[in-house]
Write a structure and sequence with these properties.
Elements (H helix, E strand, L loop, with lengths): L6 H20 L1 H8 L3 H18 L3
Length: about 60
Amino acid sequence: MGIDKRIIPLAIGGLGIGTTEFTVMGLLPDIARSLQITIPEAGHMISAYALGVVIGAPI
C-alpha cells in the first residue's frame, strides 16, 4: 500500500500550474513595465490566465 505512481505526474503538474500563478504575481510590476500597461491591467491579465486554467484543466 503506497502512493499510486500514476498520480505523481499529476501532482507535479498541478504544483507547476499553481506555482506559475504565484510567481507571475511577484513579477507583476516588471510585466506591466515591459508591456507598457498599468499594474492593475497586468493583474487582470493574470486573472484571465488563472480563469483559463480553472476552466481548461477539467476539460
